[in-house]
Design a protein that fits this description.
Elements: E1 2-6, H1 15-32, E2 37-41, E3 44-48, H2 54-57, E4 65-73, H3 76-86, E5 92-99, H4 108-121, E6 125-126, E7 133-139, E8 143-152, E9 163-168, H5 173-184, E10 187-195, H6 198-215, E11 222-225, H7 230-234, H8 238-260, E12 264-266, H9 279-286, E13 292-294, H10 302-311, H11 315-318, H12 337-353, H13 355-358, E14 359-360
Parallel strand pairs: 5-6, 5-7, 9-10, 9-12, 10-11, 12-13
Antiparallel strand pairs: 1-3, 1-4, 2-3, 4-8, 7-8, 11-14
Helix pairs in contact: 5-10, 8-9, 8-12
């Protein structure tokens, strides 16, 4: 079986960058989908496989669209006969033609009209407005290329082609979508969980395994067990407890990102969703952080986030993760800047002393 893979935004890059991204895309396809043969054409790849792989190709970042195709002898009668054996008289069809070979006797519109008329004479329902299925044909120099199945890919850039980022990960809707969007933009992601409940760690690992298996995101979950320090947070005034915890999370992530030698940290914060995510409080949290901070879902509301998580097929597993990090139900929505910084620094210093023994990370990831 043969497939055309188009790569969208990559095609807009300069020649040198385009060659780099195409090379990474080919590398990623070959690594994740075994036994494929890939060749290049202008603006697209031709992927050959003995297996049905359109679904797998649609989950490779950098792929804009995929179409299974067959090549038919460039003879009008042969093409009509091919369609007579392929099409269903209970369906209605629209034919679109793209004339790659400008020397062909018909232009694109004329040839589409000719084919539609010939197929109508043979009893097929052809319509440009009320069709149920679209049939696409490319007129190449030696063959007709007929597209049978078409599917959209995720778009973006090939995974691990544009940089590296630490992703603060809980396994819930916001952090899962943030990780997926970061990977879609070509970042190699390093998910990092701060937890105090072993159940949380187990559930987060399951989400990562799904992301790896279904979206070919090559990553490992690192985690830091904060259970022995939770009394320090719970001993604070309830009004500042949550902000101090979140500020400590920023400090820990900044330190770990420096050890990993990654230039960015990704948070799943959505503006004004909770009191720690107001513009004023984000400013407090980010104070002094020397990594680039990215927030892919910042301007999405919860409904949009959940809808997108459904769209990437991960709602069932992310919806089962409760909010483990809620430490306060009566927050001060505008806590004093200096107080948050001071309290967070003290607790962070205690955690920092024990960072190496608390960290659970794949060997070789930490510098």
């Amino acid at each position: 079986m043969k497939y055309i893979v188009k790569y969208g935004e990559i095609f807009l890059k300069g020649k040198r960058k385009q060659a780099y991204f195409i090379s990474k895309l080919i590398e990623n396809i070959k690594r994740n989908i075994p036994s494929v043969k890939i060749s290049k054409e202008r603006g697209k790849l031709i992927v050959e496989s003995d297996d049905e792989i359109i679904e797998s190709l649609s989950r490779v970042f950098g792929v804009h669209s995929i179409a299974k195709f067959v090549e038919v002898e460039r003879d009008k009668t042969s093409l009509i006969n091919f369609f007579t054996g392929l099409l269903n008289k209970n369906e209605s069809y629209k034919i679109e033609v793209k004339r790659q070979d400008k020397a062909f006797e018909y232009n694109s519109i004329e040839f589409a009209r000719y084919l539609s008329q010939e197929l109508e004479r043979r009893g097929f329902n052809m319509s440009v407005k009320t069709f149920t299925k679209l049939v696409r044909i490319d007129v190449e120099k030696e063959v007709f290329r007929v597209y049978l199945d078409m599917k959209k890919g995720p778009g973006g850039y090939p995974y691990a082609s544009t940089g590296k980022a630490l992703v603060m990960f809980s396994g819930g809707f916001d952090s899962t979508l943030s990780l997926w969007l970061s990977a879609r933009k070509g970042l190699k992601v390093y998910p990092f969980l701060l937890y105090s409940n072993p159940e949380h760690l187990d559930k987060a690992r399951r989400v990562i395994e799904r992301l790896k298996r279904e979206w070919f995101i090559d990553c490992e979950l690192s985690s830091l067990n904060l259970s022995r320090f939770m009394h320090l947070f719970m001993g604070l005034d309830e009004g500042i407890r949550q902000m101090v915890f979140k500020r400590v999370m920023y400090l820990i992530s900044n330190y770990y990102a420096s050890r990993l030698n990654v230039s960015a940290i990704v948070f799943g914060e959505s503006l004004n969703q909770v009191h720690t995510q107001t513009l004023r409080n984000i400013e407090i949290l980010q104070y002094g952080i020397d990594r680039v901070v990215m927030r892919p879902v910042l301007f999405m509301d919860k409904e949009e986030i959940v809808s997108k998580v459904r769209g990437i097929g991960l709602y069932d597993i992310t919806s089962g993760i409760k909010e483990y990090c809620t430490l306060s139900h009566k927050p001060n929505v505008e806590p004093p800047f200096d107080l948050i910084i001071k309290k967070a620094d003290r607790i962070y210093e205690e955690i920092y002393k024990h960072f190496a023994e608390l960290l659970n990370a794949k060997r070789g990831e930490v510098g």
